[in-house]
Amino acid sequence: MRRAIYPGSFDPVTNGHLDIIERGCKLFDEIIVSILVNPDKQPFFTLEERSEMLSEVLQNISQGNCTVRVDSFRGLLVNYAVAQQANVIVRGIRAISDYEYELQMALMNRRLEPGIETVFMMPAETYSYVSSRLVKEVFQLGGAITGLVPPVIERRMKEKMNQG
Ligand code: PNS
User: Is residue 145 within 8 Å of 158, Cβ to Cβ?
Assistant: First the structure.
C-alpha cells in the first residue's frame, strides 16, 4: 500500500494542485490531500471552505485506482504522516525558485523522520507560474483567473469577495 500525503495551504486549490494530484495518482494507491491548520496565518478561505472546495473539485479529476481523500493537520507534518501511516510526502515544484525552500523542508523532514521520503513532482508547464497567492492577488485586483482554478473555485472566490 503506497500512501502519500500531499500537504499545503490550498487557499484556494488551483489547477496546478489538481495536476499534481492526477500525476501522483499514477504513483500511489492513496493520496491524502491535507490542509495545514496554521494559527499564525489569516487565510482567504476558512479551513472548512477549503476542505469543501477540495472535495468538490477532486470529484472531477482522473484518479485511476487511487483513492484521494481530504484531511487537515496541525503541528509537524512528519508526525502527521507517521500517524497516517504514510511514508511519502508529495510536493509540487514549479521552478528553481521553489526548489531551495522545498529542499530545506525535505531535508529537515528527513532529519526528523528518516523513514519518510519527499517526492517532488512537476506540474504541466501550463501551470508552472500558477500559485494560490498570485491567483488571489490577481482576482482581488480584478484580473481574470479563468483556467487557473476550476470554475467552481472561481465562483466561490466571487461569492467570498461579495461577502465582504
Ligand atoms: O502550500 P504551502 O503553504 O506551501 O505548504 C507548506 C507546508 C504545509 C507543506 C509546510 O508549511 C508544512 O509542512 N508545515 C507544517 C509544519 C512543519 O512540519 N514544519 C516543518 C517543516 S520542515
Answer: no
pLDDT of residue 163: 84
- Rounded mean pLDDT of 28-57? 96
Give the amino acid at 97. Answer: S
The model's confidence at residue 107, banded by pLDDT at 50, 70 and 90, is very high
Closest atom of ligand 1 relative to the 104 alpha carbon: 22
Per-residue pLDDT for 22 more than 90? yes
Q: Exactly one of 17, 50, 91, 156 is catalytic; name it.
A: 17
Domain 3-163 has what CATH class?
A: alpha beta
Catalytic status, residue 111: no
Q: Do 118 and 111 touch, CB atoms closer than 8 A? A: no
Is 17 noted as a catalytic residue in this protein? yes
pLDDT attached to residue 98: 94
Q: In whole angstroms, give the CA distance from residue 9 to residue 37.
A: 8
φ, ψ for residue 114, nearest 5 deg: -60, -15
Please say if 158 is a catalytic residue.
no
